[in-house]
Structures are given as C-alpha cells and as structure tokens.
Write a structure and sequence with these properties.
Length: 231
C-alpha cells in the first residue's frame, strides 16, 4: 500500500511542476501520510514570520521639544542679560523629522535620522527691540529592537546617537553692540543621545501612522508623530 502511495505522490508532483511552469517555485507544507489517512499538497503560506527583515521603513513627521526653553534659560544666565531690563519672548517651530530604517533581522533595524527646527527670541525694553534667530539641524544614526513586528503593527524601542548643528543670526547691529554674539556666549550642546519607544500601525500593510516618545540629552524631540511607509 505504501509503495502505491509513493508512486502516486511522485506522479502528482510531476504533474504540478509541469502545470506551474519553470519560473514558478512550488513549496509545500508538511505532509503526513499513513495507510488510514488521506493527504493533500498545499502551497505554504507567508505570514509575519520574517518580521522586518529586508524591509525599508521611511518615516516623516513633526516633533515637540523644549528648544526655546533651553535657549531662554541660557540667555537668562548670559552676562549680557544678567542685569538687563529686557523682556524676552520666545517662539519655535516643531522639529521637522525624517528617518530611514532597514531591517537587518526579524526584529532588528538600523537607520539614519534628520531634523530641522527654528526658534526666534524677541527682546525689548520699551525703547529698543531686537530678535535673535536660531536654526538647528539634527543628524543621527539609530538602531531599534522590535518587540512586535507584524504586517500591521510595530512596537519597538531603540537608541539614537547624533549631532546638532546650530546657527544664530541677530538684528543687533555692530554699531549698537559690537561682538554681541561672541559676548552672548550661548552654546547649546551639539551632542545628542536619545532613547526612544515607538509604535506604528500600517493600513494595507504599506502606509501607516507612527508615534515616538524620547528621552535623553540633546535629543530632537520628546514626542513625535508622523507618517510611515514600509516597502
């Protein structure tokens, strides 16, 4: 009986191979054969077994942080304003973020991140008024470990290490205050180290929404929200 089943199995495989053609691979789930049971050949299904391996995640969005607060404190401690009667007003844009990550394994990815932000401080004493404009460019490398990595849901934690590039311009003229920027002596830290925890939900397994919270030193944001694409 077993010999008859073996001959039938070989014939069925040959028939399937010729029907599918040379360019279509044929894979099977495990088959159990005995004298008292029937058997079936079924294509193996692809699920979430590969996690994020070989996939590229592109994310863009905005983040919230304390950039203007950091600058306001540093200005208050500067010798230029220690005894000055100027009233400060600070405004900032959100941090505009972008990141590209690549899945090295089922649950591990590496990537790069970019951010841009602007803050403006206005100082006035009722007679004179001027503005200092700061820009911040954030560049970083990041690595993530995925706690959950399915087609629709990603839950991960990771670390970002980067560098902040700051530039400042002012409406204070050299005639009014020579060497103002030099004497201001405000230098936010260029070093950035941030631990983060993130969540993504994908619609149709490709496009989704992403949220991250972060904590660290010189990091780009405390909370970020954006759109992500997985290819």
């Amino acid at each position: 009986m077993k010999k008859t089943i073996t001959i039938a199995l070989v014939a069925l495989i040959s028939f399937n191979l010729s029907a599918k053609g040379k360019d279509t691979p044929l894979t099977f789930n495990k088959v159990s054969i005995n004298d008292n049971s029937t058997f079936a050949l079924r294509p193996a299904k692809r699920g979430d077994g590969d996690g994020i391996k070989g996939k590229i995640m592109v994310t863009a969005g905005v983040g919230l942080n304390l950039f203007k607060t950091n600058l306001a404190v540093r200005y208050a401690l500067s010798s230029v304003y220690t005894y000055a009667a100027y009233t400060p007003t600070w405004k900032q844009t959100p941090m505009i973020n972008a990141a590209v990550d690549y899945g090295l394994g089922k649950k591990v990815s590496v990537g790069v991140a970019f951010g841009y932000q602007r803050a403006v401080g206005t100082y006035t004493d009722g007679v004179f008024s001027f503005q200092d404009t700061w820009t911040r460019i954030h560049l970083a490398a990041r690595g993530d470990y995925y706690i959950v990595a399915t087609d629709n849901i990603s839950l991960y934690t990771g670390l970002k290490v980067g560098y902040n590039i700051y530039n400042v311009s002012t409406t204070v003229s050299n005639t009014f205050y020579p060497n103002y920027i030099t004497e201001l002596n405000v230098h936010p830290s260029p070093v950035s180290v941030q631990a983060h925890f993130g969540f993504s939900y994908y619609f149709a397994k490709i496009v989704g929404v992403n949220a991250e919270v972060g904590i660290g030193y010189g990091g780009p944001y405390l909370f970020a929200l954006g759109v992500t694409i997985k290819i």
